[in-house]
Amino acid sequence: MGTYNIHAGHCPQGQGANGASGFLMESVEDRKVKDRVISVLRKAGHTVYDCTDDSNCTVGQNLRRIVDKCNAHAVDLDVSIHLNAGGGTGVEVWCYSDKAADIASNICDNVSNALDIRSRGVKYTQGLYVLKNTKAPALLVECCFVDNQNDYNHWNAEKCGDAIASAIAGKKIQGSGAAAPAPKPASPTVKPNAAFDLEGWVRRLQAECNRQGFSDQTVDGVPGPKTLAGCPTLKRGASGNITKLLQERLNSLGYHCGVDGDYGKAPFHETYDAIIKYQTDTSLVPDAIVGPKTWSKLLRLS
Ligand SMILES: [Zn+2]
């Protein structure tokens, strides 16, 4: 059994020095990954210290507190969890020396295989404060890029945590290439509501599109070309009754979001998230824009 220090980088979201943000917020996701790694390793019988600094502070204070927490324990390995930004794609692991090179390389392989994203490999630096100042062998994982659409589409904090924990515990995860499983399945959390009144929903949508002047169609609950043509394109910033109907439909299909009639403006709003997931699962372009192709699927016309 091993003894490990694990921490997530940066301050908590909204407090002090946050991590990167894009489609994902680093300070939010890195904590999810960290929690998962810790719980998996503890369940397997390892001793793990959480050295995350959850106080509101500056970058310098945050780094010093993390190092102090790490150096308070004699461990086999210090692991720092981050998400990357700046226009790349994939997972990479930074090491101070080659002491933890095998584990670093296994983390790259496991995360790349588990999330089906690129492995950028193991890199070395003497410039990272935490790696430089911790006493035990240390490595820093950049799980994926918060501002890359492909990484975002493949992102799953729990899977990533499992992959990292396996690598630390000396296990390898096989890539999808070897086992050749079925094409990408829908997210496991997606459970459609069989009791949803689709006809009633179509009826209300038709009536609302007529009321707002987008269409002049028969309100019969039967979707057709006129229904589709009457559905306005919805994207970030949209709000109102049609957005609310869209949210209702997404929920009925198992893509959970609030039914508040507000699409939201931020790129990580839950409605945005639900649409991206739905588009990805139905092989549409995941652009978060609900145009004719997405409406057509929602109306069961294609
Ligand atoms: Zn970071």
Brief summary:
With 302 residues, this protein is α/β, with parallel strands linked by helices. The chain contains 12 helices and 6 strands.
CATH class of the largest domain: Alpha Beta
Which oligomeric state applies? single chain
Distance between the termini: 54 Å
Rg from Cα: 23 Å
Q: Uncertain regions: pLDDT < 50 for 5+ in a row?
A: 176-188
Strand content: 5-15%
Please give the domain count.
Answer: 2
**What's the number of extended β-strand segments?**
6
Instruction: Name the CATH superfamily assignment of the largest domain.
Output: Zn-dependent exopeptidases
Return the CATH architecture of the largest domain: 3-Layer(aba) Sandwich
Total number of helices: 12
Q: What compounds are bound to the protein?
A: zinc ion
Question: What does the model show?
Answer:
This protein is of the alpha/beta class. The protein contains twelve helices and six strands. The chain has helices at 26-43, 59-71, 101-115, 129-133, 149-154, 157-168, 176-179, 198-211, 225-230, 241-252, 270-281, 292-298; strands spanning 3-8, 47-50, 77-84, 91-95, 119-124, 138-145. Strands 2-1-3-6-4-5 form a six-stranded mixed sheet, with helices on both faces. Helix 1 (26-43) links the parallel strand 1 (3-8) and strand 2 (47-50). It is elongated, with a radius of gyration of 23 Å. Residues 176-188 have low confidence and may be disordered.
